[in-house]
Amino acid sequence: MRPMRHSSIAPPSQRRSAALPRPAAHLIAALLGLAAVLPAPVLAVEETDAEPVPDPLSLEQALSFAQDHPRVRARPAATDTSEPRALPLDLPRPQPLYLGCHSLAFSGARPSDAARDVAWSELLDPEDAQRLEIMQRFFDVLLADLSFARDNEAMAVAFIQFDRAEARGELGQFSALQIAALQAKYQLIRRQRAAAEAAQRVTRSLLAGALGHPESLPRDLVTPELDPQLSEPPGLEQVVARALDQNPRVKALMKDANEAEQALIRAALREQALELLTRLDLLAVVAEHARTESDWRDLKLDESRTLYELEATSDLGYSMSQQTKARRDERKTAFCQRLTQAELNALQGLAP
User: Fold this and answer.
1) Shortest CA distance to 343 belongs to which of 287, 269, 285?
2) pLDDT > 70: what percent of the chain?
3) Which candidate, 41, 74, 77, 46, places its Cα nearest to that of 219?
4) How far from chain centre, in Å, is Cα 279?
5) Cβ(248)–Cβ(211) under 8 Å?
6) Comparing C-alpha atoms, which of 156, 164, 166, 165 is closest to residue 186?
7) CA 317, 321, 326: angle at the middle one, nearest 5?
8) Going along the chain, which residue ranges are E strands?
9) Which residues pair with 221 in a beta bridge?
10) Radius of gyration over every alpha carbon of the chain, rounded to an integer in angstroms
């Protein structure tokens, strides 16, 4: 899915349409199909001699860039026996815009919990941490595209409602108050759509930085096939034992630590493992809710389409936008399940 240009629809204040009992079907199809037909904007990037980022870009291709990232090259490997050296510069990594898996799982938890809503960790080998960042940024781009599609459809629906009310207002069928309310609703959704479109570029910029190619913003991403049936997670004690035995970063931290420091490391390791295992359990519940919501929206859309064809109702566009939202939420949950499983693997010293 590509980032989209702004709609070419003229502002409602500049146009009037004849009063109709409901918008024509071809008008709804045209407006709700904007995301599929509008060309992607040209992303201004500098030409470099570096190896280009593939287009389209798959998740496997993206993860292969981790080993050459400056963050990985700047830090000595855990197996390096030379004298430890301080990292000259370790700038913070911005949070993703959409994919916060801790917040999604622990509904109602304290907002903006940056340390828990990112996939990378100081308990991970630098390359594994970079691979997890790439994965989270990759999923964030996909969610930005889905969010734009949702807001694009919602804006089209709001525009039709406002435009029709404005035309009927000229015939005395709608009051100025009713028209103003629909106009305010349309402008709010239009604002949300503009933010979603901007987020498409921001998330691509963050992904490009995670790939080590900040000048090459990816345009097309291949949505990965995610297995809905996740394997049974290991027990807490097994995760902790495996991390102490196989995680190169944890082993390096434990090697030169005194007794008190080792106790702190073990405590941090246990806490992180427990939260990841708990998150997986909660995400399974969230996934069931998302699937139920998506199934309901599919049925609701079928009902709305039938009623629309019988000219009994005009909420077809709304049902379409709600279906798009439900599918986005379902996909977001699947991304979090995949990412959390990768975090748990990396903590145990396994491939993310």
Assistant:
1) 269
2) 75
3) 41
4) 17
5) no
6) 156
7) 145
8) none
9) 57
10) 24
